[in-house]
Amino acid sequence: MKQLLYVLSSLMLGNVLSAQVNFDVLIKNGLLVDGTGQPRIKIDIGIRDGKIAAMGGLGASKATTVIDATGKIVCPGFIDVHTHIEGSIQSNPSAANFLFDGVTSLVTGNCGNSAKDLNAFFQELEKLGIAANVGALVGHNTIRSEVMGSVNRAPSAKELTQMQELMTKAMKDGALGLSTGLIYIPGTFAKTDEIVALAKIAAQYKGIYASHIRHEDHRVFDAVEEAVTIGREAKIPVEISHLKVAGKASWGKSEALISKLYDYRSAGIDVMVDQYPYTASSTTLSTQIPEWALGGGNDSLKIRLANPKTKARIITEMKKMLAESGAENYSFAVIANCPWDTTLNGKSIPQVTQKQKGDTYNLDDEIETVLKLCARGPRVQMVFHKMGEEDVKKIMQFPYCMIASDAGVASFGRSMLHPRAYGTNARVLGTYVREQKIMALEEAIRKMTVLPATRFNLADRGQLQPGKAADILIFDPNKINAPATFDQPHAYSTGMEYVFVNGIAVIASGQLTGKKPGIILKGFQGSKVP
């Protein structure tokens, strides 16, 4: 009934306006999927001054641009809440890999790493001009590094105060919340109470807490419990980043994990998750080394490796980590980008080791390869094939799971990066919706639009409704595809015919227009909640 009333009111509004108003853009005869999960309906949309001006029977209206969307899906632009665009969007402000995947808004600053000065970062993007909208979290690792470097200890009272001051400044500058990366240096050295102290500040500004949790393997339940504890104590909504159960030994545990999430929600904890639709992750090679060995940075790691006893301890713990994950070697680990030797890109750790040691190499040789690459620096980006397909599907079907890429702005043809940078949303719509039918198209779009808009307090995004921002997609659901693969990752998603950002077409008739209508999306107007 609510949906019917909404449609009737929109039709009435549209009929009244159609006789009076010219639109910048008129989208006719499209199959509207409004983002709420409701069934699609045939309807016209009029865009004026960057907003949705009217919806309904607008066939008699005049417009500068008229698009006949017969048989096409018309839906809100996708909101990717887990990206890493710092350092990459500046050289590629069109962010084409995201636009062709239907993404009109990006949230960066995830996994504990963000721009040091958000206000300066926002100003830089505004001056540069961006094709998609951008919002940002403030990273705990960034704040901790600024105050404490990479030391492995708790902060002093003075240091914690300094961290809180930086947190407050970032929220005033418009951050959408706090992110942590608890497998990375120095975030891994932080105790729960330190994070709570910063999350409380984010909560005061109506922000959220997004976490790359401490463990994603057999210890994932404990790591989720920590995130929930932070949410409970700081009284802040929780977003668990790229939820997974990694390592063959943990495959099949997604059902129990989701059941636990339902329990937390029933207990009043506002916890949601996001996920990319692949069975491989991508992060730094150093995550394969015990946390304590990385304290103090590369120079400290080299000193530890020069000590035979310390090195032997590191190797023993690395073997234990492998065994606990259910892996016999590092065949799951493929180099995406080695900054000083790009000939290694696309090769697994065993392949690199074989090239150096010959066919008689063993696990100790593979570990030596890992240690040398990590000690050499800078960071070696990897793709880790460690998840099970059935777990990916079960997590994707969780009603409180958003779709997110965990990617940056891609430079076409550069490095063997994860295909999620190009095909995250299109893969869901093509592979999991159209082909495997694990969820309805309307539900998948809800996970890409209304759900992230609600979670990140983006009030005027994520839903097609009069008065909201005109971030709009038009595509043929039978043609949407993600051709990017792990072997050939540089391939734009196909099928997006039109992509509008704030009422301006950034893709028209399947081609980039070069327009840059993106804006900065700030949290709670940069003001403290009264």
What does this structure look like?
This protein has 530 residues and is α/β, with parallel strands linked by helices. It contains 16 helices and 21 strands. The protein has helices at residues 2-18, 96-99, 118-128, 140-148, 157-172, 192-204, 220-234, 254-266, 298-306, 308-325, 349-357, 363-376, 389-397, 420-435, 441-448, 450-455, and strands at residues 22-32, 41-48, 51-56, 62-68, 73-76, 78-80, 103-108, 133-136, 138-139, 177-181, 208-212, 238-240, 271-275, 280-284, 333-337, 381-385, 401-403, 472-475, 496-501, 504-508, 511-512. The strands form four sheets. Strands 1, 2, 3, 4, 5, 18, 19, 20 and 21 form a nine-stranded mixed beta sheet that branches. A six-stranded parallel beta sheet has the order 9-10-11-12-13-17. A three-stranded parallel beta sheet has the order 6-7-8, with no helix packed on it. Helix 4 (140-148) packs across helix 5. The longest helix has 18 residues, at 308-325. It starts with a helix and ends in an 18-residue tail after the last strand.
